[in-house]
Design goal:
Blueprint: H1 19-30, H2 33-58, H3 66-71, H4 74-81, H5 85-101, H6 105-115, H7 122-136, H8 142-164, H9 191-194, H10 202-221, H11 226-247, H12 263-273, H13 280-297, H14 307-320, E1 328-330, H15 334-338, E2 349-350, E3 369-373, H16 385-389, E4 394-402, E5 405-412, E6 420-421, E7 435-439, E8 442-445, E9 451-457, E10 463-470, E11 474-480, E12 485-489, E13 491-495, E14 503-509, E15 514-522
Parallel strand pairs: 1-2, 1-3
Antiparallel strand pairs: 3-5, 4-5, 6-15, 7-8, 8-15, 9-14, 10-13, 10-15, 11-12, 11-14
């Protein structure tokens, strides 16, 4: 995506690609994948240098071990060699800490404002940074510093709005994913500890808890230091991500690699807390050896292509043998990018969320292809596999599988008019992370979810009748595009006139209640859009 930012300015404002990361990687990306990755390797090396400078200023023992904690780590290696947003954010975190330590207030304030466009964890960093500056900076400068923090978001907002008048930029506020209810899944509170070998180790986490106890004891006896800022940041990030994953909030995927953003601060936290007694370097060395041995035992240091990369390459090779002038519809961009197709050319490459979820083929022309994957096809694209399999204008051309991943390629055939009965589809609508099939005639919202989308209806749908029946603790909702929500109860039926604006049909449950029956009948034939 970064590669095409010079041709498509909207990418510089894309909330998924992260504006700061696009700005950082856009020039290296023009020269190919290797220069792009080399830039991320360079930024990780710069992060290590900043970590060493902080360690020197804080006079931490065994300073030479800090780079090894950072590099002998699966998460940091992965985000660096994969060219992901975490590597740049790591650099921003360490640069901000150094700026606060050196009391470079104004430049650090601007950096904190820019951090908001690099990773969501920046919100915690900014809050802590502002509180630290309020406590330590000269009082006459506090309002100036707050203005510096806000300067970057304000400028971004103004530029974005100015460009949007000429349709050059797609506002983040209008990003379509925000209009769709998406749940990526949830899990146990101990999820990140169970997967600790993918981002840390048992010895490193033990050292982190030990450091926390020692620093809390010191904070009671002495004044708050900047290392306590680091302490709150490290555990704040871990706790927030654990909370989001447990309740399936904000599209959390529960990926262990996202905790790479705490590794350098955690290493400094550990070294600083132990003080400078004679046996401390020996203890830290033994702890690091145990850390390394555990990762080696679990083969966590072996870098290999992810299942997504392997499958995407297989799909891309198949795409390359097709007619190069064909149009494609896909939600997952990686196969499209690897096949050298213009992924940001919306005239040739459609996102699935732009298609009618009841009948995707109605917006497509014969001969075109649609790629559906079981990772983003429903959760982000809004189209279920069951709908595609029952669309008479789509013919299944290929299925690609690797481990638990699947991509299905459909070819668009000559259109036919037909009545669409969703009651035949719903028992099979699964939508990973949203629904699970409990038997052949019902759906259950996966606990602890409170709200699950059944389907989204675009303006082109001539809706006739909705009938539903569910558990008494649940209720059906119709969410209109203007924000108005109709509460319809746990069972009943309703008729809606032909839609002029989109509607999302939701089922809200207090205890993961079953929806026993859901029927939607329409005989609409949306006009083709060329």
């Amino acid at each position: 995506m970064t590669k095409y930012a010079l041709q498509d300015p909207s990418i510089f404002f894309n909330s998924w690609a992260r504006p700061a990361h696009v700005l950082f990687g856009v020039l290296p990306a023009q020269f190919g994948y290797i220069p792009y990755i080399a830039a991320h390797v360079a930024i990780t090396i710069a992060t290590i240098v900043l970590s060493l400078e902080l360690g020197r200023r804080w006079k931490v023992p065994a300073l030479w071990l800090i780079p090894w904690w950072i590099t002998v780590n699966r998460a940091v290696l992965y985000v660096t060699l994969a060219g992901l947003t975490e590597s740049l954010f790591l650099f921003i975190v360490m640069l901000a800490l150094l700026g606060l330590e050196r009391q470079k207030w104004k430049s650090t304030a601007v950096l904190l404002g820019a951090a908001l466009f690099s990773r969501p964890e920046a919100l915690l960093l900014v809050v802590l940074g502002v509180l630290w500056m309020v406590a330590k900076a000269p009082r006459r400068e506090i309002w100036i510093l707050i203005a510096c923090v806000l300067s970057v978001p304000v400028v971004m907002y103004l530029v974005e709005n100015w460009l949007s008048h000429d349709d050059l930029v797609w506002k983040q506020s209008e990003f379509p994913i925000r209009s769709i209810l998406n749940v990526y899944g949830s899990g146990d509170w101990t999820h990140f500890y169970q997967l600790r070998h993918k981002w840390a180790s048992t010895p490193l986490i033990f050292g982190g808890f030990l450091a926390t106890i020692l620093l809390v004891i010191r904070a009671i006896a002495k004044q708050i230091q900047i290392i306590h800022f680091v302490l709150v940041y490290v555990w704040g990030v871990v706790i927030v991500h654990s909370f989001l994953w447990h309740f399936g909030l904000m599209g959390s995927l529960g990926l262990p690699r996202i905790l790479a953003v705490v590794i350098p601060p955690l290493a400094l936290l550990l070294h600083f807390s132990l003080g400078s007694k004679r046996l401390v370097p020996a203890f830290l060395t033994l702890l690091f050896i145990a850390h390394s041995a555990e990762l080696i035992y679990h083969q966590s240091l072996r870098f290999e292509r992810s299942p997504q990369q392997v499958l995407a390459q297989h799909v891309a090779e198949w795409i390359k043998v097709q007619n190069p002038n064909l149009n494609w519809s896909a939600q997952w961009s990686m196969p499209i990018v690897l096949a050298d197709l213009p992924s940001e050319d919306t005239g040739r490459i459609r996102r699935l969320w732009t298609l009618p979820p009841l009948r995707p083929s109605s917006y497509l022309n014969p001969g075109e292809f649609l790629l559906w994957d079981n990772i983003t096809g429903f959760r982000e694209g809004g189209i279920d596999q069951a709908v595609l399999d029952r669309d008479p204008n789509l013919s299944l051309a290929r299925i690609f599988r690797y481990k638990n991943l699947e991509v299905r390629a459909y070819e668009v055939v000559e259109s036919t008019h037909f009545d669409f009965h969703l009651s035949e589809v719903v028992p099979f609508v699964s939508g990973i992370g949203v629904w699970e099939r409990s038997d052949s005639a019902s759906l259950r919202i996966r606990p602890p979810k409170k709200l699950g989308r059944i389907i989204g209806l675009p303006p082109s749908v001539q809706l006739r009748t909705i009938k539903w029946e569910g558990d008494s603790t649940g209720t059906l909702l119709l969410k209109h595009s203007n924000g108005h929500t109709e509460v319809l109860g746990s069972k009943g039926h309703c008729r809606i006139k032909p839609l002029s604006k989109s509607i999302t049909v939701l089922w809200r449950s207090e205890r993961g209640a079953v929806l026993h029956q859901f029927d939607l009948i329409t005989n609409s034939q949306p006009e083709k859009k060329h």
